[in-house]
Amino acid sequence: MNDIDRKMKELMEKRELAKHGGGKERIEKQHKKGKLTARERIDRLLDSGSFNEIGMLVTHRAKDFDMDKKVFYGDGVITGYGTINGRLVYVYAQDFTVLGGSLGEMHGKKIAHIYDLAIKSGAPVIGLIDSSGARIQEGIDSLASYGEIFHRNVLASGFIPQISIICGPSAGGASYSPALQDFIIMVKNISYLFVTGPKVVKTELGEEVTSEELGGGEMHATISGTAHFLVDSEEEAFELIRKLLSYIPQNSMESPEKIDGTPSDRDLDDIIALIAKDVDNPYDVHLLLQAIFDRDSFLEVFKSYAKNVVIGFARIDGYSVGVVANNPAYNNGYLNSDAADKIARFVRFCDAFNIPIITFVDTPHPVAGKEEAEKGVVRHGAKIIYAYSESTIPKITVIIRRAFGGGYLAMSSKHIGADIVYAWPTAQIAVLPPKAAVEILYGRKLSEAEDREALYKAYLNEYIEKISNPYVAAARGYVDEVIRPGETRFKLIKAIESLVEKKALEPWINKKHSNMPL
Ligand code: HXC
Relative to the CA of 142, which ligand 1 atom is closest? Predict the structure, then answer.
């Protein structure tokens, strides 16, 4: 064998070793848990053959705790770039078969490098997380690397989209980095996201808790509001990423792609019938969204969290839009603390990435009892007003039915920056809903009345007559047009077309940044 052949052989051997991660036994263990390996994940996520690896031969340089005997090429993370539907993306996939996917100095540097390249190229970053957190043996060096990653998560925030799939444990630092990103996808039964795992919780707090209770997908998607999506399998997660990216541009300087739109095959009759039957009918707003937006185009975000509001991406005549809607079918469509967080964060994401927002309003007057008050509903609620007010993307609002008090103002009203506001003839716009208003206004007179019931009905009817329509608001120009429900799709398309080139006015150019209520 000549010198060149020897050198080639050496390279091929190193590559082969790198491809085997933590070794055959650990790979089998990974498969037995129903999990793919890091390389299998990248292969299935990206367009076939598009992956280019960076840093395959990186190794750690730790010596203590027998680390000099545990050196693996790649240091437990596979990093590089490739394409999804032809679009450039940067990826990193942590390899649980190597030291539990723990993040040491060099492992972290590889991820930070991917971030630097993604920011320079203006392309999304996708993290495939399967990690036990900071590598204990590397101490401060691993913490330092996490700090480098967190810093880049924040620098990149609002400039390039960042999405993580949690495909195994995501402990400690491995949980905070996804939490700083735009979207977290969790996979049922295999992903766990927590500050420390159950073993450490038991040792430190003496608390017995399962991984599922502490950080399972179901918990994060329904209770903590940390996981934006919960899927059944890794394959489903990859498919979801491909769909999600289709609504989002590469970076904040670009606009989302416009495609040919296909009208929905559903009509609005069901919704109109439900509303007509009873003004308090708790219809499911999904029916409305399915009828208005392009066929099967609605991608719901936070499906199981704060279900009293519905948010997600959709297309209308092929335009990508963000959708925010109260859902009367759950908790009467109230705006509570969780709903406020859900809406505000989504509006800010859409604003950062030039995605117009369409808001559908049907919410009772916000009423907060002790629990919500203590949770900080005032502080959380303020976030909705803040997010809509500071956003500069096209904003179109449709008032379907109830728009009372703070609910009216916060849900993208004209007063806080909506560009165009439509209302259905069924809209009710007032400070308080009828019963509450009559009790407050005429409480004394009613208590003194001979026939309380008759007087109450008379006051109620008078109030309803005055507020149960959108015409007072239309007379003042706060509603731009009262439309028939059947016109909604057409009107929204025309509004989007007219606003697509909207330029943001930024009168406060000397301001460093605003101070939103967090
Ligand atoms: C180095 C680790 C490790 C770690 C696990 N391993 N955690 N190595 N650093 N943090 C190693 C194990 O020794 C084992 O090696 C292999 O990874 C697999 O771990 P197991 O425990 O056997 O796997 P499993 O039973 O599936 O449990 C996975 C786990 C558990 C739930 C992630 O390992 C765990 O609880 N680890 C600690 C998680 C944690 O609390 N991390 C937080 C770190 S603090 P061998 O050689 O035996 O296969 C942190 C702070 C950052 O991250 C800053 C935050 C702001």
Answer: 51
Q: How far is the CA of 197 from the centre of ligand 1 (A)?
A: 8
For domain 268-427+469-499, give the fold. 2-enoyl-CoA Hydratase; Chain A, domain 1 (3.90.226)
135 lines ligand 1 (CB under 6 A): yes
Find the 43 Cα to ligand 1 centroid distance in Å: 26
Give nearest CA residue, ligand 1 atom 23.
100
pLDDT at 424 over 70: yes
SS3 label, residue 112: helix
Cα of 141 to ligand 1 centre, how many Å? Answer: 16
Please give the distance, rounded to the nearest whole angstrom, from the Cα atom of residue 135 to the centre of ligand 1: 8
100 lines ligand 1 (CB under 6 A): yes
Where exactly does CATH 3.90.226.10 map onto the chain?
3-245, 268-427+469-499
pLDDT in tens, 200-251: 899 999 999 999 999 999 999 999 999 999 999 999 999 999 999 999 999 9
Residue 203 vs residue 274, higher pLDDT = 203
| Res 511 pLDDT > 90 | no
Residue of 26, 30, 31, 132 to mutate, ligand 1, most atoms within 8 A of C-beta: 132
Say how far apart CA 434 and CA 334 lie, in whole Å.
16
pLDDT tens digit sequence for 138-185: 999 999 999 999 999 999 999 999 999 999 999 998 999 999 999 999
Distance of alpha carbon 518 from alpha carbon 515, whole angstroms: 8
| Atom number, ligand 1, closest to the C-alpha of residue 134 | 52
Q: In the prediction, which pLDDT does 467 show? A: 78
Rounded to an integer, what is the distance from CA 316 to the centroid of its chain? 20
Parallel/antiparallel/unpaired status of strands 395-404 and 319-326: unpaired
Ligand 1 centroid–CA 100 distance in Å is 6
Inform me whether the pLDDT recorded for 51 exceeds 70.
Answer: yes
- Residue 265 Cα to ligand 1 middle (Å): 50
Handedness of CA 198, 203, 209, 215 (dihedral sign): negative
Q: Could you please report the per-residue DSSP string of 187-236?
A: ETTT-EEESS-HHHHHHHH-----HHHHHBHHHIIIII---SEEESSHHH
Query: What is the CATH class of 3-245?
Result: alpha beta
Q: Are 14 and 87 in contact (CB under 8 A)?
A: no
Question: Is residue 507 over pLDDT 70?
Answer: no
Q: What are the CA-CA distances from residue 259 to residues 247, 249, 320, 363 (Å)?
A: 10, 13, 8, 33
